[in-house]
Specification:
Helix content is 26%, strand content 25%. The protein is α/β, with parallel strands linked by helices. It holds the Pfam family ETF_alpha.
Length: 317
């Protein structure tokens, strides 16, 4: 079976969930080979990658790979593409993943498809565009398909792979050393999952009314182990930090469950959440456009419904 390279997304030695999704997807189309680039590789990382089907694990663990922005990872992948001629390369559709993909496409004279929500036979990628209103199927016709896949679009399923490890040494070019990382600031995370990775997201909009009122959104999120999101109206008003904005100019999320409270459903908001598997909308206006994409809708005052919902969930724990 032909090999599909999967760039491992990792932070401080921890493999991010999106990598397991990519390995699961790769397994349906070929033999997944994980590519670890940068420091932090360990036996536990190896075990996790093999658990989700990595037949091979290419390890380029030089510290220096983690010292520069994106470019070294593209060089590691380009080296492997030249040596192994894989059938495709999958990366996470994160800021970094997309940058690495673009650089890799140039280096290998290949086509790149960004932000896929699925990949089928023949590496036909599915993208959800225009606010989720249109689904596009496309295929790379030049070089090797390089595809970035949106986190949460595939459910990760464990299935043991051989996990055969192979060390990779790549001499980085001067160009790859052009942008050095001089400082890393750990973002205060609290106990909540990362927004783009969370299986459940609870978002609040202008209907929440104030920054203080976001406490009820947070309580519901915490009862479900969810991340908190917000519409641009809420972030522009300063009620919630911009990094939690969902939508065209914010984050794209695709969780199993998306709960929107007090959000009308402007196309720019839908663009960031429409591929969520189940959408629950709470809005006092029965005509709110977000109801059009809702699987479940509650017409009513969020200040009554959200606390009741939280209480009910807590009772069932
Ligand atoms: C270029 C561009 C990019 C943009 N990017 C984004 C983006 O990334 N993300 C984004 O979200 N928006 C984005 N916007 C803004 C977008 O067009 C909308 O203005 C915004 O999404 C509206 O946010 P909202 O739904 O919270 O507010 P509103 O549209 O004002 O809706 C508030 C809703 O709350 C309901 N409500 C009020 N009180 C209650 C209550 N007590 N209980 C229940 N429901 C209640 C109302 O019925 C209403 O439906 C962008 C706009 C532009 C032009």
């Amino acid at each position: 079976m032909s090999e599909i390279l999967v760039l491992v997304d990792h932070v401080d030695g921890d493999v991010k969930k999106v990598t397991f999704e990519l390995l699961t997807l790769a397994r349906s189309l070929g033999a997944p080979a994980a590519v670890w680039a940068g420091p932090g590789y360990s036996d536990s990382a190896k075990a996790r990658l093999a658990e989700y089907g990595a037949e091979k694990i290419y390890v380029a663990a030089a510290d220096e790979i983690g010292d520069y922005v994106a470019a070294p990872k593209a060089e590691v992948l380009a080296h492997l593409v030249a040596e192994r001629s894989p059938a495709a390369v999958f990366l996470a559709a994160t800021g970094e993943g997309k940058e690495v993909a673009g650089r890799l496409a140039i280096k290998t004279d290949s086509g790149v498809i960004a932000d896929a929500v699925g990949v089928g036979e023949g590496f036909v990628a599915e993208q959800s565009i225009f606010g989720g209103g249109v689904n596009v199927h496309s295929r790379v016709t030049r070089g090797i398909p390089i595809i970035t896949v949106r986190p949460n679009s595939t459910a990760p399923v464990a299935a043991a792979g051989a996990g055969a490890e192979e060390k990779v040494e790549v001499a980085l070019s001067d160009a790859a050393r052009a942008a050095r990382i001089v400082e890393r600031v750990v973002q205060e995370k609290g106990g909540r999952p990362e927004l783009t990775e969370a299986a459940i997201v609870v978002s609040g909009g202008r209907g929440v009314g104030s920054g203080e009122n976001f406490a009820i959104i947070e309580k519901l999120a915490d009862s479900l182990g969810a991340a908190v999101g917000a519409s641009r109206a809420a972030t522009d008003a300063g009620w919630y930090p911009h990094q939690f904005q969902v939508g065209q100019t914010g984050k794209t999320v695709s969780p199993q469950l998306y709960i929107a409270a007090g959000i009308s459903g402007a196309i720019q908001h839908r663009a960031g959440m429409q591929t969520s598997k189940t959408i629950v909308v709470i809005n006092k206006d029965a005509e709110a456009p977000l109801f059009e994409v809702a699987d479940y809708g509650v017409v009513g005052d969020l200040f009554q419904i959200v606390p009741q919902l939280t209480e009910e969930i807590e009772k069932r724990k």
